[in-house]
Amino acid sequence: MTGALAVGIAGLGTVGAGVVRLLADHAALIEARAGRKVTVVAVSARDRARNRGVSLEGLRWYDDPVALAADTKVDVVVELIGGADGPAHDLVMAALAAGKPVVTANKALIAMRGSALGAIEGASIRFEAAVAGGIPVIKALREGLAGDRIAGFAGIFNGTCNYILSRMRAEKLDFATVLADAQAQGYAEADPSFDIDGIDTAHKLAILAAIAFGREVDFGAVHVEGIRGVSALDIAFAEELGYRIKLLGIARATDAGIETRVHPAMVPLAAPLARVDGVNNAVVIEGDPVGQIVLQGRGAGAGPTASAVVADLIDLARGRAAPMLGVAPQALARRAAVPMAAHRGAYFLRLMVVDQPGVIADVTAVLRDHGISLESMLQHGRSPGDAVAVVLVTHVTQEAAMAAAITRLAALESVQVPPALIRIETA
Ligand SMILES: NC(=O)c1ccc[n+]([C@@H]2O[C@H](COP(=O)([O-])OP(=O)(O)OC[C@H]3O[C@@H](n4cnc5c(N)ncnc54)[C@H](O)[C@@H]3O)[C@@H](O)[C@H]2O)c1
Ligand SMILES: N[C@@H](CCO)C(=O)O
Ligand code: NA
């Protein structure tokens, strides 16, 4: 048995304190599995006096995280500060420059700077915690499915959004009410925009797509829509039509290249992702020859996220090498990013129209002009002279045709508010 793996941790918030606690609580089993001790020797955070519920006795303290990377007694740097720039980025660059491996939970950093970091000669950087927290989805793709060709995957990667959508459905509440409550209870951030505008999901999707398809991390190519526009009315219609609305991150290999998109989607009740509720995350992967794999679990929180960070540390302690994105930098594939306009799928479209003769004829004429075929149509009740909801479900059609039709529908005099559009997925 070689000597202990000496760990330096920067950032002692939810995840950092969770990692210190897990390494202490499971010290014996981690040593047995790693073949050596994994020991925290140094830490850095902003407030030395703060009580984090974990003992920092005997650990070297650094006010400046970059100084922690220079500590010659630190073998591996764990970055748990967060953010694509600033101290987290400075620390990771300093650690890699010093030839030290890095473990991080920072999805923003990997999504925005992953390609540049991966290109650094000899860089060793692990980030299982960054995607779907405790679900070992990066290991599943990079190791477990290393022999498979991945056709695509779809997942629920943001617990905050899934919690909000689950409560909106179960309690028939609107978005603003549930968000305010989630903030009051401390689930959602005071500025929750990364979560609810889909950016956090897009970070995770960009990272996972790079590994699934062996190409560079391409955050800029991801089409991103969040959940602010999801209404209680559309959730009720989804229920009636046999769907659940989820914020999905989807990546697919098509003949034209790789499609990556984040948006609310209607998922049939029988599909694996439909029944994943609350703060849970889940991902459905399609591989050849393995077929379909479904992983579900906790995507956030101190324990689940620490579980992923510690697994990465054990890999390092074992001396297991793995290229950052699953293939060597020079072997990364160049595959085109497919624009959203080229996406093909089925759509749910809700219009608020004036209840008067001829309106449906006008609407269907627009759809006909753009070659869009309808699967079903729904209208409840009558309200002459007032606005009523009309729901249209299309057959598979091209996004560009749908977008053009919506522009024309929105301009019709009988259409009262901007049309609501939700894509239908089979995952
Ligand atoms: N909380 C989760 O459940 C979760 C899940 C997956 C990934 N992550 C990621 O893990 C990382 C940490 O998240 P968190 O929830 O623990 O955040 P947090 O806000 O609870 O903790 C951040 C820590 O970084 C420290 N810090 C900030 N600036 C610093 C500086 N200049 N120098 C030294 N320390 C500094 C803070 O003092 C704090 O201890 C983020 O990248 C986040 O996206 C979090
Ligand atoms: N804000 C994230 C945390 C985990 O990345 C979520 O709600 O899922
Ligand atoms: Na993970």
TrEMBL record:
One of its GO terms (molecular function) is NADP binding. It holds the Pfam family Homoserine_dh. The keyword Nucleotide-binding does not apply. It comes from Acidiphilium rubrum. Its EC number is 1.1.1.3. GO terms for biological process: methionine biosynthetic process; threonine biosynthetic process. This is Homoserine dehydrogenase. NADPH binds at K107. SUPFAM superfamilies: ACT-like, Glyceraldehyde-3-phosphate dehydrogenase-like, C-terminal domain, NAD(P)-binding Rossmann-fold domains. The active site is at K204. Keywords: Amino-acid biosynthesis, Methionine biosynthesis, NADP, Oxidoreductase, Threonine biosynthesis. Pathway: Amino-acid biosynthesis; L-methionine biosynthesis via de novo pathway; L-homoserine from L-aspartate: step 3/3; Amino-acid biosynthesis; L-threonine biosynthesis; L-threonine from L-aspartate: step 3/5. NCBIfam families: PRK06349.1. InterPro entries: ACT-like_dom_sf, ACT_dom, Asp/hSer_DH_NAD-bd, HDH, HDH_cat, HDH_CS, NAD(P)-bd_dom_sf. It comes from the Bacteria. Belongs to the homoserine dehydrogenase family. Residues 348-423 form the ACT domain. L-homoserine binds at E189. The lineage of its organism: Bacteria, Pseudomonadati, Pseudomonadota, Alphaproteobacteria, Acetobacterales. NADP(+) binds at A10, G11, L12, G13, T14, V15, G16, A17.
